[in-house]
Amino acid sequence: LDASGADALLDLLDAHGVLHLPDQPLSPEQQMDLGRLFGPLQRTDYGLRHPDHDEIVHVTDVRKEDRITERWHADSTYVPDELTVCILQAVRVPPSGGDTMFADQVRAHDGLSDGMKDLVDGLRTIHTGSAFARLMGADPADAPRRTHDVVRTHPRSGRRFLYVNPAYVDRFEGMSRDESRGLLRTLFDRASSPDLVYRHRWSVGDVLVWDNRTCQHYAVHDYGSAPREMWRVSALDDGSGTPAARSAVSSW
Ligand code: SIN
């Protein structure tokens, strides 16, 4: 793929949210090269890092009780530099189970009543990485947080989408958790309604590319202690479009 190929993939992402590229096993370098077509890569120095590349998150050996990805979420919505396009490759899959579900947040917004659209438009929520900090043994008080509009407009497609997830949204800006709970529950239910969901059954060598703004996902942990190994790279939106502009290691 060259830059025009990446543009074609972006057009498809704008139309579909998630793309399945079957039977395309990639080396770590190839997967990073693919990610760099969409922007500078997120880097991590945390426990889930690939042993040789801090641009690759190594999703493996996570116990069910520690699995924060077994909730509806978009990746790292609390960090300062937004993750725009994520690429997940199946390296080892369990004999059964281990699917990943994706929910379309453009249609989640489209399906709201006019009254609900009016109510939530203009509201903002606080996203926090405290659950991830706890998992990594870090102090949740130090976790990054970021405020986002509940309803956003996609910079390329111009489509409106819902942007709240139960893994990282703490509360509405200017409201307490108690006050936020009811309306957030309603929005979380809408965001993950079964009619919005694509469920992917993995094979080794599958590569999924998704728009991390317009999709949420949920990794189903129903495979006991069977091995499951995935590599993820994520392109960041730093506004400059210049991969070399970003060299700092992000802990999150
Ligand atoms: C993730 O949440 O990025 C990982 C998804 C998965 O393990 O299927």
What would a concise description of this structure say?
The protein is an alpha+beta fold. The protein has helices at residues 3-16, 28-36, 105-110, 114-120, 130-135, 177-191; strands at 18-21, 57-60, 82-92, 100-104, 124-128, 145-149, 151-153, 160-162, 169-172, 197-200, 207-211, 215-219, 229-237. A hairpin with a 6-residue loop joins strand 7 and strand 8 (160-162).
Detailed description of the structure:
It is a single chain. With 252 residues, this protein is α+β, with helices and mostly antiparallel strands. 23% of the residues lie in helices and 27% in strands. The protein is built from 6 helices and 13 strands. The protein has helices at 3-16, 28-36, 105-110, 114-120, 130-135, 177-191; strands at 18-21, 57-60, 82-92, 100-104, 124-128, 145-149, 151-153, 160-162, 169-172, 197-200, 207-211, 215-219, 229-237. The strands form 4 sheets. It has a 5-stranded antiparallel beta sheet with strand order 1-11-3-13-2, covered by helices on one side. The chain has a 3-stranded antiparallel beta sheet with strand order 10-4-12. A 3-stranded antiparallel beta sheet has the order 6-5-9. Strand 7 (151-153) and strand 8 (160-162) form a beta hairpin. The longest helix has 15 residues, at 177-191. The structure holds succinic acid. The site of succinic acid has 9 residues, from strand 12 and strand 13.
